[in-house]
């Protein structure tokens, strides 16, 4: 542990990362519900739906996600990592892959993408599940193969055997944003595991090459990459969403035009309650409102990282890398979503974690939080029982 890490961990220990995490999470969900209620009313009215339909749906997703999170919190960590359950992570990967295959054949097409399985009362987005599962897979792999990863340049590359089927099915949907988050998580976990630079450099090189090829083969992806460099050269075409997002931020200035008074949500910015909810927040609540949302996201990420550092300090490597991977997933989505709404990155179909409307995203993210809290609860018990090497 570096001196900086020790000071950082000590500071958050005094604040109690669990308390910071739960408080920040509660606050951002409350703000999310308020902003979804505001941003979705015109969208609902245009389709003759109940005015607060999406507010109630999101509240239901929060409740469902909370129930799943509490269930995960009650599962002992040995279920995932103990020798008698050594195949659980593999079974999770098979299940995620199976859901992606089902989506490819039977998924519902929404806005040109086949990402959702229609379960009647709920559309399941398998890509959200894949993000969480691949964190488990990567953390387990780098611990089991720790000696090989340090000595053999190509051991980390073999992880692509697990990633390429998942990534290929996601690109087929297409869901390029989730693929970016997955490979970023892979590279970061390999980096923090202590692998030589050449180890993750190979993966980074291959990811960049595959990313460029995937982006350039699809005309709409190529158009998005080129259009974000000038958000106003084709405001009725490829720049439609981005231009209106920037206009929303511009109207909001420091303190916003007032809650409920957004103009861009009035059918100017399509589906403003989902990927571009942060822009509507910027218009109605201004820079200050956006800053609060991003601060809460940062506190959630930092709290998760502190819990990961605690496990690392106790040499519970699987737990540490898994929790850290969840932090990377959330951080990646925050950066991409905020970047695309502000014109700093091409438009991607990624939600702002815990904030944008989205059932699968909210439920899976809360399940991640349930696991993180379980690690925070059980890590010290594992340490006292001298079982660190099994976790």
From TrEMBL:
Q: List the InterPro entries.
A: FtsW/RodA (IPR001182)
Q: What is its EC number?
A: 2.4.99.28
Residue intervals passing through the bilayer: 20-43, 55-76, 88-110, 178-195, 200-217, 285-307, 319-340, 352-373
Gene Ontology MF annotations: lipid-linked peptidoglycan transporter activity; peptidoglycan glycosyltransferase activity
**Keywords linked to the UniProt accession:** Cell cycle, Cell division, Cell shape, Glycosyltransferase, Membrane, Peptidoglycan synthesis, Transferase, Transmembrane, Transmembrane helix
**Enzyme's top EC category:** transferase
Give the GO biological process terms. Answer: cell division; peptidoglycan biosynthetic process; regulation of cell shape
Keyword Hydrolase on this protein? no
The family annotation for this protein states: Belongs to the SEDS family. FtsW subfamily.
Q: Which PANTHER family match?
A: CELL CYCLE PROTEIN, PEPTIDOGLYCAN GLYCOSYLTRANSFERASE FTSW-RELATED
Q: Write down what this protein is called.
A: Probable peptidoglycan glycosyltransferase FtsW
Natural source organism: Moraxella canis
